[in-house]
Amino acid sequence: MEFFEVLYGRRAVRKYKPDPVSKEDIMKILDAANYAPSGRNLQQWEFIVVSGKKKEELGASYEVVAQAYTAGWAEKARAEFIDYARTYGGAPVIIVVLTDFSEDPGIRRMNLESASAAMQNMLLAARALNLGSCWMTGPLNDEARVRQILNIPDEKEIVALTPIGYPVEFPPPLPRIDPDLSQKVRWLE
Ligand SMILES: Cc1cc2nc3c(=O)[nH]c(=O)nc-3n(C[C@H](O)[C@H](O)[C@H](O)COP(=O)(O)O)c2cc1C
């Protein structure tokens, strides 16, 4: 798939088919992440590939978060979101991205940005393989539970999670707030 087709075709996917994803494809996605730029070339990212019982535990945790988040929503929309949270949209795999924690704000920022670059590489690689993904930080509203389930030590910062799986569909691209970039860009000469 051509690069810009991948770029414009990526969408947050929230409904997945149960079909398994091959280990080979997961490794391709992780390898793409591993080729991201990084502050001081420290390549300060780590990944946890979660499936099976641990995925169910993550889902149970996100379900509790989703129940609080959707309080006050219309009944149908609420039930759908909670179901999405509990099952991670039915995706067979979740990848969790970690970076090194630092007390130093500058280093912390550098580490988070490096790992975010790795995260975005993952989402694009997944799209190139016709796999869906969804950058997620919502589950970290109960970060303590996520850490406990995945046995993540305090020296590691959790950046985000993404389900990976074959989408029921890739939704069409979302309109841009500023499509011609007249508001978001300043050219200084
Ligand atoms: C930092 C970040 C956090 C996000 N957290 C969540 C989340 O917790 N749950 C979710 O369903 N989507 C989450 N998203 C996905 C966004 O909702 C989605 O990217 C946005 O609506 C634009 O849609 P698109 O990715 O299809 O272009 C997150 C995206 C980013 C970049």
Give structural notes:
The longest helix has 24 residues, at about 105-130. The chain is about 45% helix and about 15% strand. The protein is built from 6 helices and 4 strands. The chain has one domain: NADH Oxidase. The site of flavin mononucleotide (FMN) has 9 residues, from loops. Flavin mononucleotide (FMN) binds near residues 14, 134, 135, 136 and 137.
Provide a concise account of the structure shown:
With 189 residues, this protein is an alpha+beta fold. It contains 6 helices and 4 strands. The mean pLDDT is 97.
Total count of domains: 1
Please, how many helices? 6
CATH topology: NADH Oxidase
Can you summarize the main beta sheet?
A: 4 strands, antiparallel
Q: Work out the strand percent.
A: 5-15%
**Low-confidence stretches at least 5 residues in length (pLDDT < 50)?**
none
CATH class: Alpha Beta
Describe the global form: globular
Give the C-alpha Rg: 17 Å
Strand order of the largest sheet: 1-2-4-3
Helicity level, as a percent range? 40-55%
The number of distinct β-strands equals: 4
* SSE arrangement, N to C: HHEHHEHEHE
Mean pLDDT: 97
Itemize the secondary structure elements and their pairings.
Blueprint lengths: L2 H7 L13 H12 L11 E5 L1 H18 L5 H13 L5 E8 L4 H24 L3 E2 L9 H8 L5 E10 L24
Antiparallel strand pairs: 1-2, 2-4, 3-4
Helix pairs in contact: 1-5, 2-5, 3-4, 3-6
This protein binds flavin mononucleotide.
